[in-house]
Design a protein that fits this description.
Elements lengths: L11 E3 L5 E3 L3 H23 L9 H22 L16 H15 L9 E2 L4 H26 L4 H24 L5 E2 L8
Antiparallel strand pairs: 1-2, 3-4
Length: 194
């Protein structure tokens, strides 16, 4: 089977169930940004894997790989416009247990961090920085999913999952800095004087 089908050459694509829509459709935008998040998580795993030999970040890598698999379910859920909570679907859907796993990971990693009393700038280590990039892509994907929800029926658990995911990525970025003995970068107000 060839990778190109030529069916999207005029700017449209197929959803689950066969409906054709513009590639600029809010549903396509939403799952495209989820795909972008997954690609960035793959980059993060590659960067963090440089530290895997000493096991410093292996538990974080394991969590990120699990999230990458979950994001395929998020994408399939978004790609199927026939969502009905009362009908058992063949399409994999985001479920509450996926949210619970994210929340358990947040609680686990956050319990080992110092409380914060200031705004944190993305940065510190390269590994932490890429996790902040992933967090910001997750927030953008969330905005797209919210926009889609304003015009179409979606699985509401999608919104909870993607919101919690960005929180987890923030906590993981802080965890990486702590494990590498790098302080979180504090935001400092810079007043412009004339």
């Amino acid at each position: 089977m060839k990778i190109y089908t030529k069916t999207g050459d005029k700017g449209n694509t197929g959803l689950a169930g066969g409906t054709r829509v513009s590639k600029s459709d809010p549903r396509i935008m939403a799952y495209g940004q989820v795909d972008e998040l997954n690609a960035n998580l793959g980059l993060a795993v590659s960067i963090l894997s440089g530290e895997a030999a000493d096991k410093m970040l292996s538990d974080i890598i394991e969590v990120l790989l699990s999230i990458q698999n979950d994001l395929f379910i998020v994408g399939s859920d978004l790609a199927d416009p026939a969502y009905d909570p009362l009908v058992n679907s063949r399409t994999p859907r985001v479920e509450k247990d996926m949210v619970a796993r994210i929340e358990n990971n947040i609680d686990n990693f956050e319990s080992k961090l110092d409380p914060i009393s200031y705004f944190i700038l993305p940065g510190g280590t390269c590994e932490s920085s890429i996790l902040h990039v992933c967090r910001s892509v997750a927030r953008r994907a969330e905005v797209s999913i919210v926009s889609l929800a304003n015009s179409d029926t979606i699985n509401e658990t999608l919104l909870v999952y993607i919101n919690r995911l960005s929180d987890l990525l923030f906590v993981l970025a802080r965890t990486v800095n702590k494990r590498k003995n790098i302080k979180d970068v504090a935001w400092r107000s810079t007043k412009i004087t004339s």
